[in-house]
Amino acid sequence: MLKIGLTGGIGSGKSTVAEIFKVLGVPVFVADEVAKSLLNDAEVIDFYCKTLGNEIIGPQGIDKKKTAAILFQQPRLVEKINAFIHPLVDQRFDVWCDQYTTVPYVIKESAILFETGLYKKLDFTLLVTAPVDLRIDRLRTARHMDIAEINKRMQHQWPDEEKIKLASWIIYNDNQHAVLPQVLDIHQQILSLTEKQKMGTKQ
Fold first, then answer.
1. Residues 26-52: b if buried by 16+ CB within 10 A, e if exposed
2. All domains of the chain, ordered by start, with CATH?
3. DSSP state of 203
4. Fewer beta carbons within 10 angstroms: which end of the chain, N or C?
5. Contact between residue 128 and residue 173 where contact means Cβ atoms under 8 Å apart
6. What is the pLDDT of residues 33-90, one digit of tens each?
7. Distance (Å, rounded) from C-alpha 9 to C-alpha 132?
8. Is the pTM of this model over 0.90?
């Protein structure tokens, strides 16, 4: 079984690409969703309080808005939070993979796959890219985000130019290239790689 990393900057459309792979029958692990679920974990809550202060705790647990406000004022703490959270997410990914040992490949979707360095534990990586101005338009239209929030989120992600250097495959979601044919082509390429892997194992 191959492990493929799927990433892309905010507004690039990586979640849409992930949904296409799901339709093709490929198991997809969404790292961002798992990271959010960890905010209910006692160990994580304790770390957040020690790092950001007890004021981030609200009636429903960790208050995401208060947390975001603090991280915006102290961006150096973002790396500290990521360094704590992402290894925990990666542990859950390993456990999740155990139930899919018979499939050709699985996908790990993560917004900051390259930034965390965790891409090194995967077999291949797939980057979804789109022009920054188009990504901003999508975020303002679909998510009703203001430009300040968009810029803040983008600042914590590498530019596509850096990610392209590390990507095994690139999907261009720029309104000029149809996404589906690109996904289908990459899907077939990965299946071919898994067949070669099987042949190598048999030999």
1. bbbbbbeebbeebbeeeebbebbeebb
2. 2-37+92-202 (3.40.50.300)
3. -
4. C
5. yes
6. 999 999 889 999 999 999 999 999 988 889 888 888 888 778 788 889 988 998 999 9
7. 9
8. no
